[in-house]
Known about the structure:
Strand order of the largest sheet: 4-10-9-8-7-5-6
Bound molecules: pyridoxal-5'-phosphate
Number of domains: 2
Low-confidence stretches: none
Amino acid sequence: MSNNSFVRKESSEHERALLARSDRHLACGIRSASINPAYSMVITGGKGARVTDASGNEYLDYLLGSGPMFLGHAHPAMVAAVQQRVAEGNSFLLTNDAAIDLAETLSETVPCAEKISFHNSGSEATYFALRLARAYRKRDKMLKFEGAYHGMHDHALMSAQWTMKPADFPHAVPNSAGIPVQTREDVVIAPFNDLETTIEIIRTHADELGCVMVEPLCRTFVPRPGFLQGLRDVTRALDIPLVFDEVVTGFRLALGGAQEFYGVVPDLCAGAKAISGGLPFGFVGGRADIMDLAGRAGVEAGNHVRLTGTYSGNVLAASVASALIQELKAPGLYEQVNSRGQRLKNALTDLLRSADIPAQVIGEATAFQPWFIDHEVYDHRSSLGLHWKRHFKLQDLLLDRGILKGQEKFFVSTVHSDADIDLTIAALADSMDELKAV
Length: 438
Ligand SMILES: Cc1ncc(COP(=O)(O)O)c(C=O)c1O
């Protein structure tokens, strides 16, 4: 029995018909990645911290579109920004005022971002950060960490989070079909949180490396004290650009992202989700001498990096991002969201411990995850061998209680109220017996 009043409605005829059309027309049915097929749903809308499905179920949402809805669904500032600009035209290819405003704001807000380029997703942002770094270094290889996810391009999908059978370091394995075999040679893999081994790999491959790219919070593996600073020191000494993938952490951990939160400033960063309002958006920010390779300086130096496309600096996405950054500047906002997230994270830790379910709840206050495993989890390899049935079951149990979480993180938003957190803790408490029984 649930402690809250939610009773999940069976999938309606209308929703089943929509799902059948999705299967017929969508190559991978967007739903397939994140929900148990038995709970397949079609989302019809979202408001604040809640989303609604086509059968009329309303869920308290900790998936948040995989992070972008950090300020909640249909935030009034986002809606107003879109409404104001959409009627005035929104795609010109030429530089527009909204993009200039946002670039200026990003430069003032993100520590490493002396200059900015705009893109349409997190994947594009990491891809173009990589290209900029390679051009600057005139070297082709990328070092990334095992288990880190940087998006869907070829290099990003080497030894990413779906690596069940890792190769010996520094060898990479592809996480998708269709990636050219050559890419294995272009990606060097290191263990997150193992500074000594990583430095050894960086030094060995220094003459080939175009960049070191890292998710500062790698999935939910928290960087050990000194790890990011150690990367900073060795990359600076060797003049290899250090790239932070801040697609998740940017504007979420702090206004200045992980670089502000952990106090380590990279050469380049890729950003996207938390200020996108859910619109297609990404950016690269970084040192002017590297970013300038995308402009006239790059042409004059015979080292020009091409990275713009039709929608770069899209007026709607730029206007929304500027509006949401203003919202995030509200005094006390980060203190409040972090304290609510931390309360939920602590409660989950305590409940699992009391129920005697082996688990590690790791990550930061607004992006954390329970790993159902009986030892410390600090990198990809230490996370292998988790209790997959419990991992999947938690999502089902919460859906039964009106709570939507992804298969990985709990994302906490600025619009999850104290009452929402209480309700979630009650639903979690109510789920423990069934979770343990799995
Ligand atoms: C750390 C990180 N980098 C890159 C990406 C790719 O972003 P997008 O899905 O916008 O392409 C993601 C997406 O989840 C991510 O978590």
